[in-house]
Specification:
Layout: E1 2-6, H1 15-29, E2 33-37, H2 64-76, H3 79-92, E3 96-99, H4 110-116, E4 120-124, E5 138-139, E6 142-143, H5 154-157, H6 164-179, E7 188-191, H7 194-203, E8 210-212, E9 232-235, H8 244-253, E10 260-263, H9 269-275, E11 280-283, H10 287-295, E12 299-302, H11 312-319, E13 324-327, H12 332-335, E14 342-345, H13 350-361, H14 364-381, H15 384-400
Parallel strand pairs: 1-2, 1-3, 3-4, 4-7, 7-8, 9-10, 9-12, 10-11, 12-13, 13-14
Antiparallel strand pairs: 5-6
Helix pairs in contact: 1-15, 8-13, 11-14
Amino acid sequence: MKIVLANKFFFHGGGSESVFFQEIEYLRQKGFDVVEFSMHDPRNVHSDFAHYFVSNVDYNSYSGLLGGLKTAVSFVHSREAVRKITDLVEKERPHIAHLHNIYHQITPAIIPVLKKMGVKVIVTLHDGKLVCPAYLMLNRGRICEMCQGRHFYKALWSNCQESLFRGFMLAVEGYWHKWRRSYEGVDLFITPSRFLANFVKKYRIPPGKIAVLPNGIDVDRFIPINADGGYILYFGRLSREKGVETLLKAHALLEPEIPLKIVGTGPIEGELRSRYSGPEFVGYKTGGELMTLIRNASFVVVPSEWYENCSMAILEAMAYGKAVIGSEIGGIPEQIEDGVTGLLFEMGKIAQLASKISYLWNHPGIREKMGKASRDRVNKYYSLEQHGRGLMDLYEIVLKR
């Protein structure tokens, strides 16, 4: 069977890219013929199919009115992506196209083309893009569901992006693909959490077109060593929706001060560094350096303040046998079993988070027990093998329809 795996980024970045690359590797190991489709970028890993990739596009930089209009058009409908995917299908003749994050740089304009050429289409939803044109479902730091998968003008009307031009582009994009029925050509949507499945059912997608398949992780690559280096760890993007400042405010309440390491970079890194001197800002880490930091942490905190789907950070921490404190929002409660593998707190509640941190810090035996339960849970429900088998089953179902 030949599968096209598509994602707008072809380098190791966020959690969706982790899932994307793991699926490519798993499918090839199982004998599938995988063709990659993405965007050119200096950070890309090697691909034998890079000649099909679309040109690099940065929608945060354009000049003048004409440049803005050209940007808006390609943001909504990429003619280059349509041309390149047509060439790819004609040459490679895939049975299935499995799409991950394709909006903006590749655009959903490729979906009708794939369907017209007889290719089955599967889309993995990593966020709420079909319901919220800005995908985070946030408006100035608050959860927002105003657009409801159809009222896209509210992205402009509420100025939730604090940029009228960007709000305009998002609204036009939403209406264009709804009018063109681009997503109607999708044979199956995959969501990594029950929360997101229920959310998109409520506003946009018929139940019969959705399957829940949790993200997987190659557990064998994560060897717990029962180490406790005497620090709390946050690792991930330093941006508003990740709730990092809530964690820093909670940390400031703790007496005596508990060591906290912040790993990552992002748009609010400079602001956080200047305002909070207590934690250790480690910067961006990857590979062995990041794994060592996770492996030696006392426990991990994931204080997200948006509808987190199926956090790869949580899965990595659990695979290393770490207890996790997480926000009770989105798909996080499906991952963390409160009181068993970690602790949940009400999103944004600083004092409550501080209390949970203090409790785990002062009870090393409990966090060790939770860590072992975390490892068992990730083995049972989130292994890459389980994810891969589930994915192949879904491919078979779609091909038989």
